[in-house]
């Protein structure tokens, strides 16, 4: 059985003091525990250490994730962050392949694959994003498009346990727009992702890999998504920036 995961992507929000306050607020909101729900928060890189300290001091059942990584171990890569640097601050998850990284910074499936390889080598779980534009969806090619992303992003990956890898399906047209895919829309693509993962990793592993939905997910709609058989949680953007709203999603998933 796959545990539900609720992961918060803070994006480029919250300075160090604000991040510490948000993390503390989340700890307070979830002081009664998270049950079988796995909770991850992904603050900006400059906030990772402070948030890690809050989580460690509170013994909270909340994991720390990063928003990006580079695939080299070290070197002249100004502005980048190596996997070992993430490990050193206690990050155990890392978002890769987000549509904003692909769209604004030109990241390719090859880049995402290299990042996944590097993260796995350092025992950090990739939360690997995929998703289609409105143009692709309206052309009826969204399933085919996402399947090709999955195949490219996972090329050559070696998994021994399904907990080592997470997929996040985020239709680009639903991110930060207020538009939300229906639960049936999410299930259609997440089911195709699951089938593709079975082809790549085999039935047993693929059945254990969690697939999250992202794209204007919020407390009011999370239960509907979680009723679908291949939707195992959510990658949350705006709703993760307030402790009460994010905690409400976790509680709804319990």
Give a brief outline of the structure.
The protein is an alpha/beta fold. The chain is 43% helix and 15% strand. It contains eleven helices and eight strands.
List keywords for this structure.
15% strand, 11 helices, 254 residues, TIM Barrel, globular, alpha/beta, eight-stranded parallel β-barrel
Q: What spatial order of strands do you see in the largest sheet? A: 1-2-3-4-5-6-7-8
Average pLDDT, rounded to a whole number, is 96
| Parts with pLDDT < 50 across at least 5 consecutive residues | none
CATH topology: TIM Barrel
Assign an overall shape. globular
Oligomer: single chain
Structural class: alpha/beta
The proportion of residues forming helix, as a percent range, comes to 40-55%
CA radius of gyration is 17 Å
* Helix count from the secondary structure assignment: 11
Describe the model:
Homodimer. Keywords: Cytoplasm, Gluconeogenesis, Glycolysis, Isomerase. Substrate binds at residues 9-11, 176, 216, 237-238. α3 links the parallel β3 (62-66) and β4. The protein is of the alpha/beta class and 254 residues long. The chain has a single domain (5-253), classed as TIM Barrel (Alpha-Beta Barrel). Helix content is 43%, strand content 15%. The chain is built from eleven helices and eight strands. It has an eight-stranded parallel β-barrel, surrounded by five helices. α1 runs parallel beside α11 and α7 runs parallel beside α8 (183-201).
Give the topology, please.
Layout: E1 5-9, H1 16-29, E2 38-42, H2 48-58, E3 62-66, H3 83-88, E4 93-96, H4 99-105, H5 109-121, E5 125-130, H6 134-138, H7 142-153, E6 166-169, H8 183-201, H9 203-208, E7 210-214, H10 222-226, E8 233-236, H11 243-253
Parallel strand pairs: 1-2, 1-8, 2-3, 3-4, 4-5, 5-6, 6-7, 7-8
Helix pairs in contact: 1-2, 1-11, 7-8
